[in-house]
TrEMBL record, chain A:
Domain Integrator complex subunit 14 C-terminal: 373-480
PANTHER family, per the entry: INTEGRATOR COMPLEX SUBUNIT 14 (PTHR13532:SF3), PTHR13532
Protein name: Integrator complex subunit 14
Keywords, ordered alphabetically: Magnesium, Metal-binding, Nucleus
One term of GO molecular function: metal ion binding
Provenance organism: Cyprinus carpio
Gene3D superfamilies: von Willebrand factor, type A domain (3.40.50.410)
One Gene Ontology term, aspect cellular component: integrator complex
UniProt GO BP: snRNA 3'-end processing
UniProtKB/TrEMBL annotation, chain B:
Organism taxonomic ancestry: Eukaryota, Metazoa, Chordata, Craniata, Vertebrata
One Pfam assignment: Mat89Bb
InterPro entries named among the record's database cross-references: Cell_cycle_regulator_Mat89Bb
Alphabetical UniProt keywords: Cell cycle, Cell division, Cytoplasm, Mitosis, Nucleus
Family under the similarity heading: Belongs to the Integrator subunit 13 family.
Domain of life: Eukaryota
Protein name: Integrator complex subunit 13
Subcellular location: Cytoplasm; Nucleus
Species in which this protein is naturally found: Cyprinus carpio
Transmembrane segments: none
Amino acid sequence: MPTAVLLDSSLSMTRPVSVEGSEEFQRKNLAVHGLTMLFEHMATNYRLEFTSLVSFSSLWEVLVPFTRDYNTLQEALNNLEDYDKTCLEAALQGVSNIVQQEWGTSCPCQVVLVTDGALGIGRGSLRHSLQTVKQRVEDKKFPLPFPFPSKLYVMCIANAEELQATDSMDNLEQLINLNGGEGQIYTMEGPLCLKSVQSMFGKLIDQAYSPFHAVLRCGNLTSDVQVFPRPEPVTIDEEVDPMPRTVQTEGDEIGTGATDDTEEETSTNQMAGKSPNFCVLLHGSLKVEGMVALVQLGPDWFGMLYSQADSKKKSNLMMSLFEPGSEPLPWLGRISQLGPASDAAENPYGEDDSKSPFPIQPKHKRSYAQNVTVWIKASGLQTDVQKILRNARKLPEKTQTFYKELNRLRKAALAFGFWELLKSMAELLERECTLLSDSAHPDAAFQLSHAAQQLKLASSGDSKYAAYEHNITPMLTDFSGGGGADRI
Amino acid sequence: MRIFSVSHKTAFVVDHCPYMAESSRQLIECDMLTKSRSQGVIPLAPVSKSLWTCAIECSMEYCRILYDVYPTKKLVNYIVSDSEVHILNSWKQENQNTQELMTALAAVGPPNPRQDPECCSVLHGLVAAVESLCKITEYQHESRTTLMDTADRVANRGRIICLTNAKSDTHVRMLEDCVLETIQEQNKRAAGSDRLMPIQQCELVLVHIYPQGEETLVSDRQKKELSSVLSSEVHSVRAGRYLAGKLNVLVQQHFDLASTTITNIPMKEEQHANTSANYDVELLHHRDAHIEFIKSAQPSFHCMNGLKETVTLKWCTPRTNSVELHYCTGAYRISPVDVNSRPSSCLTNFLLNGRSVLLEQPRKSGSKVISHMLSSHGGEIFLHVLNSTRSTLEDPPSISEGCGGRVTDYRITDFGEFMRENRLTPFPESMVDAACRTPVERAKFQLERHTRYWPMIISQTTIFNMQAVVPLANLIVKDTLTDEDVLTCQKTVYNLVDMERKSDPLPISTAGSRGKGPKRDEQYRIMWNELETLVKAHVGTSERHQRVLDCISACRSKPPEEEERKKRGRKREDKEDKTEKNGKDTEEKGWTTDSERLKGVMEREKDEQSECEIIKDSPDSPEPLNKKPRLATEEQQPPEKSKGPVSLLTLWTNRITQANSRKHQEFAGRLSSVNSKAELYQHLKEENGMDVHENGKATR
């Protein structure tokens, strides 16, 4: 999950910190020290995550766009300049824009705001922003909550007492509330010094930047893995099951399936040596065979492992998390019902690998996969009537199609209680009968009047003829010889 | 997303009273005469649907869309009301499909205009709907059962959609009051029942249908809370397409749907096969497929007919490039708005035949942005959301840069074979094996068995590089062996013995070690050890697995001194054995099965041993190379051996020790020992910076 660091570069950050020791620090130095610690941690444990550095005062500026290059970030920290007053709203809007431009609105992002808690005065101050938050017009909305899933961490280069003396703490708390409660405020404990800033950033690292280590297990074959980005807990149904689900650190690979579709968010696995590693073996075989492996992440939570290659011939083992639940992909069915193919009476993949038991077809076909009748638009009804008439004119060759279409119309008309249509259709068929040319096959006339007769009977509502399941069958005549041989 | 929201249960109440038989007065011309035939023929009078027909087909359309997008967990109970109540289906999942409803509706038929209007009312249906909402669904039941203590988290909410022809606003109010009263009554009743649940929230949607060309007697009213439990809204709609439009809007509101119009679909013209025109198809799906547009308020949103909101996306001519698939962030089921129009059915058939279509955002300038994809899985079409911005997964490191990435001799092909053998397949719900394990548990169990001994790299194994071992290796991992399987395993072992006798070369890795690698007999020793390790890992599975190990132990070449000892010991043992057996047979019938089996094993072994030894003693078997003074071996013999007859206890103890020694893995030191003396601290010899692997392969 990418991180946007928003660093306060207003003049108040240059206030000296009173320390008994010999060295004199500005608050800015403490902030830089804390961020250095965060960047060092990320460079070692989180080097696949992207981080951006934005500094703000009354204006804001992207110092480093999203990057995995922590040296560049560190360099920027060492070359900070001081500016005027604090205008947080504009800066938050700026962060919101750069994150959306880079990652869109579905990628979760962490925003780390580093400030001394002096949040400005007058217009542009946080206090002013919050007071007017309800009186905004559509295009001047307060930037929180961020449109993307986010966590806002406020790192105060100040201790709690200092912030509570003014309304700064209240304002910051309001800020977190505006973000839907997603986030946390960190303050320094004790005197403002390097040690206390370290301890504060240490807490942030534990909370938001702990690496995700897990064991991938396939029977007795195991491998330690680290997952990037870290899989976050998910709440499935806040009412029935309000506890967020977390990914267990023991990933159980439960078997392989030959599907090649991918859904849901993806995380990449990255391992840090030289002795044989199961992940490399698994990756190699998945790649060669073009298979995916199903992996269990917790009770009723699954995902899949596969080899993903970028365009540059580099490939790695990827894990895609499915939505938690017992049936995450409808075409695989219930995961608990997937068992070893060798237990089946007959190899479901065929002796020569030509078959597959997947996808599983749904019990009922969707409307677009079955020939449903919808007459909401007049054209739908007209098309169906015309189809019958077209076939009526080609009797006896089209006898089968004629009756098939006729029965379809009959069923729908009965279900919709549209008996008037049955009568009209009967009349139309009778008229067709009178319009038959002299050269017409004699069977045509018989079939047309038979069909018309049957429709009229159905339209009477007589249960004997109006039964839904009943089908009108072709009349057996001396000419019909079994009634047409055409197939559709 | 909450499963037990108001949308979990929808009760449709359709008025079947005589006045619903009235014509909607929307005329449909179904006699479309073609020009050539029109001469002299009087066209048929147009047909018109009744209010009832309009209500039915629009509600069926509502259900069709609902079932397409939510095949499970969103349930409909269809009720028809006249002088009595006709409940056409239940909350059961198996009843949730339009075919079943259509069949039931055909049985009900159109309203009978001659029925006494005094006895008919939609009220019967509304009361039945409230009663029905109190009935627990299988999903509610399942959740309540699994949640146990917190079963009260399972809520009971629902919606009643009533399609009727009301007399006036007062009439509407009367209907609302009746629903409210019934809820209060039923909730009291439900409180005392296991199969019923009180209604916590109910949304009443009253749709007043009136014929075209008439003035409405009922006014529209927005949603209003009538009590903490009941809210109600009134829609006054003209029959025909207006009603269809209204229910289409309602189904979208009720189930969080949104609309996407696919534009620029090239389609061959029916008449002129060589020309193609572009068509549009509108699809409904869950709103989340538009999440990116909603949040960033992109301008691709635009309105059609001033009523409907739809997002327009452009068809991209299909190509196959699977890279896009990896950045898919969601898949949502679709339902075409106009399901049987030609453009719709062309698109859906194209997709159902396994093709995919990428969808592009229409832009006047700039590069093209592909944001969605249509594709089907197992007969269902899904709208896939593709990530159109930068991905955090870009430029991942190669796996070769990580741990184990520089090892080059992984058994990739073998593991591929392993994966194919462990592929999954769906089993029917009812299939549970004797141990009550679900299929997925059986799959995990199989993986465990198949990986008990599975070296990951080629240079770590000998047996898996030998074609001759394959039959045994494939069989030994099985949960159960047949006698025939055991025979195949034994044949494999005999075959190996034969190879050893002929001194066939073995595929032992020489990579990394200096010189020619281990000598031939050493190679065979390594091979036999590995084979034993494999089989020992499975020996606990069944008695037949044990027999395979017994066969190996009996047939494998032993260090020569051991052979010698055995030969000498045999005669004596044979004698003892016979007497012992006689004695036991008569005296102690109650010997434990364990010792019985042990005895059986040992006897079988002996037979096999003698068989093998005959081969080994044949003139072409190589001379044992390791001829060493026998002193040490003698020392190891129990003192009793040299002192004439041994006691029964000693004999027995020796046997047990011998049998047991086969059941545990030998100490590495003892295995590589010469005359039971192992050299300690061998590694100190390799002081020139080399480290030695277990398999003797040195790496830098």
